[in-house]
Structures are given as C-alpha cells and as structure tokens.
C-alpha cells in the first residue's frame, strides 16, 4: 500500500505571500497543508506507483449564527478584488478562525464585488459608492455600533487608510496602523523607521501593510448579503451631489493607474500603439530600449530604473522581459504578453500570452474595439 509523499517545495510555496523588494516573505502562521480544511500537498508518484485519489471539491462553508464578527473593508476597483483586498480578507479569516471556527467575516465594499465567497467572506455589506468619505465613516461607525465586531481590518493604502483613521477618531479608539505581522494573539508593527517594532494583542481597529498576510485559500464561504440599513446619507446642505469622475488614462502617472499597455522593441508603429492605448483606456508605457531611442518619453519607462508599477493589469507588446523590467511589474496582478519568442521571460511571467508579432496583433485588437469596422 502506497503512502503519499510530502513535497517540501510545494509546502514552502503555500506559505509564500509575495516579495517585498527582492526578499520573499512567508507567513508561517497559516495552517499547514492537510490541516484545518487545507488539502494536502502530495508529490507526484513515481512510475509504477499507485497514487492517492484527489480530494473532492470542498463544500460551501456556511456560518449561520457567528459567535462574533470580523469586518474586512475592501476597495475592489472595478468590482474585482485586488491582491491587497484578498490579503485583508485572509487576515480577517485568520482572526475569525482563531477560536472554534464559528465566527464570521463581513466584507464591506462600496459596490458589488466578484469572488468574495472564495476570498473568505461569510457576509457582504455594501455601502453607496457616491457618498463622501466622512459620510461613509459615519455609516461605518453606525454599523460597528449595531453589530459590535471584534475586529475591523483595513488596507494601509489610499481610501482604506483614510477611512481607518476617520473611524478611529469617530469611535475614539486606537488604530494599530501598518501591521507587518498578524496572528490571532499578536499584531506587530515597525517603529522608528524600521529600527524597532512593537507587539500587542490585536486591537479592534487594524490596518495591514501589503504582502504581509497570505490570502484565504480553503473552502469557499457563503458571502450572504447582510440586511442592514446603513446606507450613507449626505447630511451637509452645502453638498448638492457627489460624482466619481475617472481621470484621463493618458495623463495619469504610471504609479497611479490600474491598467498599463506598454511598448517594447517589437513595436514599430507607435501611432497604432497610442491609438490602441486610447481605445483600451489604458496608460501608455514603454521599455527602457524604447525610451532610450526617444520613441516614448522617459516618464513612460517601466522597470527598476523607471517606474515600479502596482497596476491591476499590465499589457506588454513586443517586450522580451529583461530582469529590471520584470522587477518593475512584480506588483501587477494580471500580465498579458505579446511576443514572437515563445521562450521570452515576459511570456513566462504572463498569465495570458499571445505568441505573435505585435504589429499584427495591434490592428486586430483595434478592429475588435471599433466594433469590427475596417
């Protein structure tokens, strides 16, 4: 009778939460494969050996009456969870499962979001996206007063970090900001410019640094809509209406945009490239070779010697993928690559690859974006 063999490399990879700079980070507080509902990692069997049957697809995890609640505030731009959002939900799941597993995670967002159940949310509470930050903070405080969560977690970035501080002032409670390490018993953050750190029992209000917690990967949760009248209402008579006006992608800095389409040495028709970027509503970027040649401005250079991106999507046209360029897109969640070289580093990095000449792909995409007109 055969025994399943451990795969140490796969186990180590299961703890990987991403890289900070050039150093990988591992979250050892997460359960090992084979425990707490996490499927075991088994190395492939040798030829002639019998293999263990694959584990069945996990059933939906349902918490009918949570012992307590943990709030996770997510931004989810475009209705999709970012990598940072998944880490916040993973941290909330970690705190909720610290006891007997009967607690619930409530995802709080400003609009409908895909994949909240798979990311670990038992309940979902939506706020109005058009409300002012102060009004959202007031509504969130009313929700905290009504449901009394044990913890409220935020991402230490952008609007989430601002909302965390507004809520801390409204509740007159301390906020442990930019937490670098979190377990059910301890939260650690750096002080004195990283020369020292402080550790404390996780308080109610916590904001997390990026790439500090591993996302939730166990059985999908219910993500049931929470019926609670917490719609933010603007009570300032000076404010007549609130509207979100997106910025022009062509004028946004590469460090501030969510979608970048970038040209490399395989692009020669830059008029078509700029036209494609306009139709995709993406910010144009370029490799160092293109900027050195004067074909794109230096501000458009992507890479370790240019701009390091945190975009949701990076579309590389004719870029082979030099190490410095790959460092610049390490924080991008989705990468699409077009290159004639099947073995190019950018093709390997991409989640979706098109092995073709960029000069042929660009007009074909433009035709589709224009509705099939020639």
TrEMBL record:
Per UniProt, the ranges with Basic and acidic residues bias are 1-15
Q: Which residues form the Electron transfer flavoprotein alpha/beta-subunit N-terminal domain?
A: 70-244
Q: Does the keyword Transport apply?
A: yes
Region named Disordered: 1-55
Report which superkingdom the organism of origin falls in: Bacteria
Record bears the keyword Electron transport = yes
Enumerate the Pfam families for this protein. ETF, ETF_alpha
GO terms (BP aspect): fatty acid beta-oxidation using acyl-CoA dehydrogenase
GO MF term set: electron transfer activity; flavin adenine dinucleotide binding
UniProt KW keywords: Electron transport, Transport
Q: Which family does it belong to?
A: Belongs to the ETF alpha-subunit/FixB family.
What name does UniProt use for this protein? Electron transfer flavoprotein subunit alpha/FixB family protein
| Species for this entry | Jiella flava
The top of its lineage is:
Bacteria, Pseudomonadati, Pseudomonadota, Alphaproteobacteria, Hyphomicrobiales
């Amino acid at each position: 009778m055969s025994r399943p063999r451990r795969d140490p490399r796969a186990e180590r990879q299961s703890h990987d939460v991403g890289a900070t700079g050039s150093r990988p980070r591992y979250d050892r507080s997460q359960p090992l494969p084979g425990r707490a509902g996490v499927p075991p990692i088994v190395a492939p069997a040798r030829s002639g050996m019998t293999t263990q049957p694959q584990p069945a697809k996990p059933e939906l995890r349902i918490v009918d009456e949570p012992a307590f609640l943990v709030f996770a505030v997510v931004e989810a731009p475009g209705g999709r969870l970012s990598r940072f959002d998944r880490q916040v939900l993973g941290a909330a799941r970690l705190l909720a499962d610290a006891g007997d597993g009967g607690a619930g995670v409530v995802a709080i967002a400003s609009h409908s979001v895909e994949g909240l159940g798979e990311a670990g949310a038992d309940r979902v509470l939506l706020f109005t996206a058009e409300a002012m930050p102060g009004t959202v903070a007031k509504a969130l405080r009313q929700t905290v007063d009504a449901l009394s969560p044990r913890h409220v977690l935020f991402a230490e970035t952008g609007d989430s970090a601002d909302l965390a501080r507004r809520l801390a002032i409204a509740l007159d409670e301390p906020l442990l900001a930019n937490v670098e390490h979190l377990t059910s018993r301890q939260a650690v953050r750096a002080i004195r410019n990283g020369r020292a750190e402080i550790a404390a029992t996780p308080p109610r209000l916590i904001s997390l640094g990026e790439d500090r917690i591993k996302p939730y990967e166990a059985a999908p949760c219910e993500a049931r809509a929470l019926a609670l009248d917490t719609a933010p209402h603007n009570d300032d008579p000076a404010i007549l209406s609130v509207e979100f006006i997106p910025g022009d992608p062509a004028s946004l800095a590469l460090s501030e945009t969510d979608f970048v389409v970038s040209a490399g040495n395989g692009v020669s028709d830059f008029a078509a490239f700029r036209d494609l970027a306009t139709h995709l509503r993406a910010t144009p970027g370029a490799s160092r070779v293109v900027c050195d040649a004067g074909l794109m401005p230096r501000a458009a250079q992507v890479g370790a010697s240019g701009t390091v991106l945190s975009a949701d999507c990076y579309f590389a046209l004719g870029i082979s993928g030099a190490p410095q360029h790959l460092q610049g897109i390490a924080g991008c969640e989705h990468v699409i690559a077009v290159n004639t070289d099947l073995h190019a580093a950018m093709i390997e990095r991409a989640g979706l690859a098109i092995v073709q000449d960029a000069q042929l792909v660009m007009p074909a995409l433009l035709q589709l974006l224009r509705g099939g007109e020639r």
